[in-house]
Amino acid sequence: MGLESLIGGEGFLTTTVNSIVNWGRKNALWPMPFGTACCAIEMMATFSGRYDISRFGAEVVRFSPRQADLLIVSGRISLKMMPVLQKIYRQMPEPKWVISMGACASCGGVFDTYTLIQGVDQFIPVDVYVPGCPPRPESLLDALLEIQNLVGEERFDSGKHGS
Amino acid sequence: MAADMVDTLSPYDSLPEHLRALVTDQVEHQGQLALHCLSADQRTMLEHFRTQQGYDFLVDMTAIDHLGMDQPERFEVVYVLRRLGENSQLFRLHVWLSEDSPDLPTVFDLWDSARWGERETHDMFGITFEGNPDLRRFLMPEDYPGFPLLKDYPLRGMGERRQFPRVVPRGDQMAEEEPEDYPTSIGRGMHTPEYTEEVRRDSKPK
Ligand code: SF4
Predict the structure, then answer these.
(1) Contact B144 A79 (CB under 8 A)
(2) Domain boundaries in chain B?
(3) Each residue of A13-61: pLDDT tens digit?
(4) Angle subtended at Cα B105 by Cα B99 and Cα B109, rounded to the nearest 5 degrees
(5) Distance from first CA to last CA of chain B, Å, rounded?
(6) Which of A79, B58, B103, B118 fits a disulfide with B129 by CB distance 3.0 to 4.6 angstroms?
(7) Does the distance separating the beta carbons of A80 and B166 come in below 8 Å?
(8) What topology is assigned to B3-138 in CATH?
């Protein structure tokens, strides 16, 4: 039972290019996991069967940034890791979105020390922050839904990724 | 059996007379022995333990910064030595090291594991090991200017963690912007008085 049986033989739909592209994009986000600490364990739990991020269409985890459009920064980012994170962010093709998962990625968490970046949003743009140490998988799923809302609001002629 | 006799001797007792004189202190804590000596005797002691007593494993090495404490010198470099096999022994050699000339001869020719131990100790405390051919940064980035485990290095660093450019999307291009407050104090050596003064000032709570 697919779309064609709903529409019936010769039926047709009207929509705008904008909405159909956004509909496709938001229901098939390909995440690039940037897991550098304990939050990554919770991210893996979210990807796995019990919480099953594929219910929201984001199960195609890509370990090459060139194939991904959602960067999940989960964990502590140190001085040595920040240039790597920036490089990976820049390697992702547009349009792209970023989730900063956990207290450490969002603001440094309890690690207010010489080597820890106090929030990755200082150096790369972040769309959604997930609070918690670590955030529960439900929180990450909620962030994904939040990203989907953002994607749904995209327009070609304006907005973040408009040209 | 000769092996049993060696086994029962502590690292201190097994030292010949002229080397015992170099041990300034011995401390036993929780069944672990620590011998202390001066930096001038470090090489003699370690060579003896490696070549004459068969301590074939340098488990770890590190340093302690005693700034502001009532101790003979500011730095203490710690070698954890182990002899594997039947006469197994484990003890630490603590070497006092002055703040004015924080350098020691390398021991990587005795134990290969000293290469990384010395790199790490250099990275964290700025102690140099003469003769180590590869004293690059170990944990910190190559261009990191300071030595973060020194007690007078500010916990939050000298602004290094804010020094990255900001990547911002501009249409379909990526642009880089300088962050607003670029650090002013990076790129200095450790042992100049101005640097120490500046670190003390910066590390005071505001
Ligand atoms: S926020 Fe908590 S769980 Fe996440 S990386 Fe930091 S310390 Fe680990």
Answers:
(1) yes
(2) 3-138, 146-206
(3) 788 888 998 999 999 999 999 999 999 999 999 999 999 999 999 989 9
(4) 150
(5) 67
(6) B118
(7) no
(8) Beta Polymerase; domain 2 (3.30.460)
